Task: inverse folding
């Protein structure tokens, strides 16, 4: 597996970007350029990553809502996902990732319609529309699960894989986002094993974070930095070791360099305990 982390800075050259990754011992990376980067710059950064044996883990299509009830918003969401998937394919990224979208007012909002059969059908249609327009040869299009949108479980992700029925549709795994009840929280290790048993062959990238159930009514499941919650990273890394050796595991959603360094250190420490290379 390959470990990656956001880098909270910008670069004047691809060489500087690669040097920073090397200094931190990171062999996977988030795509570092803004959406409006010119083609020559895009190609230079992609080439530098390839020459340095750095896997570009994912290109985000965040903030796009391809299942919005508003026609203009939906069309814009589809177009953004197409553009980001085309970028991911151009640079040889493992995947392009977005959430499925929401029937609410914003792209990732909870909504009573998000889990319906009609919304499932909309997700199938939108993903097919994105993939059939781009026809990627290298990258995959993936959906990150959320606690209140589909896919919200390993089984619902499997159902989407079967229904969408496109070779270049795959899995972006964020197991903490599947934990949306106390029952799942307390059975976290079993849930991790279920994720890999059912979705393993399709997983292209993994987000690493932690979770804690707070003692406040009614239910408060709080995202935490790796090592500060109860997710068993020994199980997570053991299961990941069975995947493609280039599969990225990426820390995320922290605010300071020190927090990111601590998250990376925790993943490394668990891997060292298990004698697993990262």
Result:
């Amino acid at each position: 597996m390959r470990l990656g982390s956001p880098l909270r800075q910008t670069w004047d050259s691809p060489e500087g970007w690669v040097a920073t990754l090397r200094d931190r011992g990171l062999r996977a990376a988030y795509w570092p350029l803004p959406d409006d980067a010119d083609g020559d710059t895009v190609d230079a950064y992609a080439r530098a990553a390839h020459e340095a044996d750095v896997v570009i883990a994912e290109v985000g299509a965040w903030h796009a809502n391809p299942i919005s009830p508003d026609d203009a918003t939906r069309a814009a969401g589809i177009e953004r996902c197409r553009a980001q998937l085309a970028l991911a394919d151009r640079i040889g990224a493992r995947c392009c990732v977005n959430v499925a979208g929401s029937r609410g007012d914003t792209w990732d909002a909870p909504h009573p319609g998000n889990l319906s059969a009609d919304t499932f059908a909309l997700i199938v249609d939108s993903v097919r529309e994105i993939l059939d327009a781009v026809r990627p040869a290298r990258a995959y299009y993936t959906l990150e699960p959320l606690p209140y949108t589909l896919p919200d479980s390993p089984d619902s992700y499997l159902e989407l894989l079967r229904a969408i029925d496109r070779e270049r549709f795959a899995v972006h795994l964020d197991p903490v986002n599947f934990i949306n009840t106390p029952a799942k929280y307390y059975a976290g290790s079993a849930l991790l094993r279920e994720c890999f048993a059912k979705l393993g062959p399709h997983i292209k990238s993994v987000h690493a974070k932690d979770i804690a159930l707070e003692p406040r009514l009614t239910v408060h499941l709080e995202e935490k930095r790796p090592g500060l919650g109860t997710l068993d990273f020994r199980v997570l890394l053991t299961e990941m070791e069975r995947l493609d050796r280039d599969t990225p595991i990426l820390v995320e959603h922290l605010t300071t360099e020190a927090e990111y360094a601590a998250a990376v250190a925790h993943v490394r420490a668990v891997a060292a305990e298990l004698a697993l290379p990262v």
In short: The mean pLDDT is 97.
